[in-house]
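Exercise (ungraded).
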Amino acid sequence: MGVILELHGITKRFPGVLANDHIDLDLREGEIHALLGENGAGKTTLMNILYGLYKPDEGEIYVNGKKAEIHSPRDAIAHGIGMVHQHFMLVPVFTVVDNVMLGDEYVRGGGFLDRRRAANRILEISKQYNLQVDPFAYIKDLPVGAQQRVEIIKLLFREANILILDEPTAVLTPQEVDELFKIMKSLVAGGKSIIFITHKLREVLEFSDRITVIRNGRVVGTTTPQEADQSKLASMMVGRQIEFAIEKKPAEPKEVVLEVRNLKVLDARQLVAVNGVSFEVHAGEVLGIAGVQGNGQTELVRALTGMQHPVEGEIRIFGKVMTHASPREFFEMGAAHIPEDRQRDGLVLTYPVKDNFILNTFYKPPYARGIVLQQPAIAAHAEELVRRFDIRTPSIFTELSALSGGNQQKVIVAREFSRPLKLLIAAQPTRGLDVGSIEYIHHRLLEKRDEGCAVLLISTELDEILQLSDRIAVMYRGRIVATVNAAETTKEELGLYMAGMQPETLSLAQVVER
Amino acid sequence: MRNLGQQPAQSLRGFFIFLEEVRRSPLTVTFLAIFTGLFLGGIIAALSSEPMYEAFRLSVGEGLKAGAQAAWNTYRALFLGAFGDPVKISAAFASGDWLQINRALSPFFESLVQATPYIFAGLAVAFGFRVGLFNIGAEGQIFVGALAAVWAGVFIKGLPALVHAPLAFLIGGLGGALWGFVPGWLKAKTGAHEVIITIMMNYVAFRLSEYLLTGYLRDPNKTTPISAPIETTAWIPRLFPDPNRFHWGFFIALGIAYLVYLLLFKTTWGFELRTVGANPHAAHYAGMNIVRSTVITMSLSGMLAGFAGANEVLGVNRNLGVAFSSGYGFDSIALALLGNSHPLGVVLAALLFGFLRNGAIQMQLTAGIPIDIISIIQAMILAFIAAPAIIRTLYRLKPPKEVELTVRSEGETA
């Protein structure tokens, strides 16, 4: 296997930060090369340099042994380098064909688009690499996995040989992930080479040929799945030993804290998003809500935190009806909420760190006396939380937007955990965070459970759900299709529920199989 | 910063760091925008002077000289109009005659008189900005405030001055508050955009004032549509004898600016309002009441603008004619922007506008230079504030802080 791409001593400085420090990397023809690192390690910076979005301060790029000058994505494509971004670059109201040709249109006489010829080309590609998609479907009607296939077809349409996939599995169901890896195998079998960016260790070990780990902008080392295991990769990534199996005492569920009966909630388009959901959460247990994103979890959480009122059903906390309560009334009942979209809902990015700590308690003593804010008390509170939760910030007066994603999330966790809690609703609490922060937040969640707090954990990460939950409810299309005991289930079983299979049909299918 | 570390002398390094900080400060942009606007204004003053073109016929050098002379004349007249003539002032002080001193200083005080409604109206718009609301209706609120104040000044009789003047001032504020409440309430209840509603409310206010001034409020002894003079008990008192019109309204404005500052930055109410402005989603999450904040903010904003109208009626004109405001409300949008929506910034920007406006009036009267030059200068200053990229490129300033910070957080390890 020849080397198709070589990066030599790539260095990129941002004011005050060395994002890439003399990075060397080589990609062999027909391999899947995983680029592994925490958020902020410099993976994305490196790939943006390769794709022509940033200009490196030092270093050279060689494609097929020849030095390449890449100043724009156009140059990158000309050298056969293509990238699938984490957030897809598709026009939802266009068809697959139109999206694929966008910027590289097939034209017939008179300046008309030649959709037929483009569609044939797409069908050819999809046959060759097993990328099933209907060229005339609209993007907005396609599931996420199919949209991702369209992104890949876009690159192949432009004859890319080097494919960069930036966190491609973040948005997929377990089944879609398997599908993606099949496609990646057939791509490399067809002679393409893939750089695969991720921070998920399991995927790296299962699907890549070689692994390069980056930390603090430097290459820590290159290894293969045969030589490495999860804990070795994790310690390379973080620079210290990481505990994987969280030690979890058996739950001691006590009285019912949160009780939900027959809840019905509409989404922003006034369609039914949560359709008759019932469950309860006891003190001292973690109830995990699993499910592919967009199956009503967001609306369920909004209803359970007072941010949106349900159209039917009932919510009780300690027996008190909270169905139409406001967020503040939920907080006053001892509930805490770690919101799904932390930058949108959970934080004010233009505020200093200290003000973000009092977002939902600012009106109460000791932070206010009457209507006058008590700055000394606010500052003291902030200093204490920064120390106790090990938040990395230059000072409590620093604007929150200057903090890394992990530290921003720690600000929310610190704020919500600093009150006496009876009920914790945590939505995607570790989304997009690095291994170190995930470990930290998981420990804190279980600590709260052991203190006797009722925890409702909503996550699309199956590993997380399995690790933390005592019971697991799976949501599909606004309903809870199954509730299982965490100790007695498997990832595969949950995956099938997440795809809409009912427990009854599941057992039937198993019988038939046998 | 890396290469700065190689500077040999420690003090030199300190100086460079200072320079870096100045180059990154948003205030630098503001000051350079004002400077650039004034500089370009000088060029326009030169270009619009006949003698310069005559002089260019003689030689290029003469032409440039004449152009510089024209710009100098403009700014000299502007300065004398805004601050008074230093020669006259020192002569007046030397003579020790109070009347002469008063007369010599009156241009300076007249600038403060011009700045006063700007402070009120600028606070009104800035207060809305802080809560994420665009109150384009300050002009209309000024009109309604003035109408309410003049009503209280003319028709309430027999009160002592100590009660009547504050009452009339407050009634003016309530008139403005009513005009701000309507769009706030409509936004909260129906989602109607406050920009549209406040603009439309402006027209209603203009026509309403014409209607009332030709009817109910009209002075029957006058042929023009103008109100009767207000009772002297409703006057905001002046501090000096004529022609100096300086009155207590200026200090009321400063006091209210300080109150707005306290409200916004020192109280729980202000915290809630600012949070709604900075991130309404987070405010909703944290249990804040966005509907209430919207209505309260628009009402208070309208009240501040209403004070501007009351101030003009009770402190300066002592009656109300048609079209009396001449654009304070619209200028105040720009002014709030210039002052970075901070009460202190608003006061400073209002002073700048007051000095420019008064200087321009005097400039036109004494030197015959068209007042429109000042509008152009103001427009250019604001364009530069609104498009800081121009100023940054012009003066090779560092890019804004936000961009670096996002990059930094990406390149940082957690």
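Further reading is listed at the end of the chapter. For now, observe: The domain at 243-334+420-514 of chain A is CATH 3.40.50.300 (Rossmann fold). Chain A has a mean pLDDT of 88.
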